[in-house]
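[Target chain]
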Amino acid sequence: MSKPRLEFSFPDPEGKPDVLVIAGEHSGDEHAARMVSDMLAKEPDLNVVAIGGRHLEAAGAQLLFDLTQFSIVGFVEVIKHLRAAFRLLDEILRWIETHQPRVVCFVDYPGLNLKIASKLFDKGLANKAGGPVRLVYYISPQVWAWKGKRRFQMAKYLDSLAVIFPFEVDTFADTDLETKFVGHPFLTGDYDLPVQYDPDAPVLLLAGSRVGAVSRIAPVLFGAFHECLKRKEKLKATSIYATDTLKNLMESEVAKTPGLAGRISFARNEGVIKASAVLTSSGTMSLNCALASIPGAVVYRMNTLTYWMGKVLVKLRFIGIANLLLDKPMYPEFIQGRANAKALATELIECIENIDRLRSTRLHSAELRELLSKPVEGGVSDWLRGFCK
């Protein structure tokens, strides 16, 4: 992959902009695109511009700059090129000051987006600083788990916040920030889950989407599968990858264990993958699997020092998203030392063979769907449209 272009000069908008959407990661670009597509279907005369990616452009926004080119390494890594990072920030601020859209809608990506919001406030451009530009945010930073004091900074800069987990409304209850639950994007009508339950399909091994996590989690997942083969010789597995780098890393791990070659296939995260059970890291894919009613467990390993620091700073009962939402272990969690090959093999076979496990998973999945469904008063596109009047 070529290195990100680090010189920035955004084009002028094609008419007076109503909304500027800023989404830095591929997932945010996709979620924002569904929001924009639905909004333009209801109000096609709105002029939407974006600093995002190809999905926002396809949804009808004028793409000023492809910010998702940084999502492979993240803005934190780009910040090592400090002069270039400051140029990017300066160009975004210059564009907003020059063209003054009615609304700037930030989507996730807090490292950059909250910095922009604070700068717009300091420049007097933000509505809460007496300026002409309303600042709103879709998909909140996880302040309920990490850096909780950021919610007060957000309340200072932002006019409104649209959250995708219902409990997040209470998280901001001690601030004056208008916070609305708008439903989870995985339950919108045009979203297709990337996974599907099939009792005859291979098991799914999901080590994550970042090199560090995959290097720690993949070996124990593959070790667990190897243990399973001692009891179920014909079992097969699928592992999903987002980049060729991750695929190569996982293939090298498979090659270290005799007998695994040809038993684990690798599929790019495109289309729909069928699975009879899953061992998954705690990220977004774990929620997709839970909504698809695939029996499974959450597996997580991190650097030992990071883990113990996290234990001190992060006070959560669970790390799996489905478990957090339900406040009970839909997916049993195997963390650090508990994440070993024999324990996970036993768990995986239980998921495959125990019909009661499947029934329980389906009940939990139905609870999740009800919990995350769009509220009666309207979804995210209606929320954003309200600021364009």
Remarks:
- Confidence is low (pLDDT under 50) at residues 1-5, 72-79.
- The chain is about 40% helix and 15% strand.
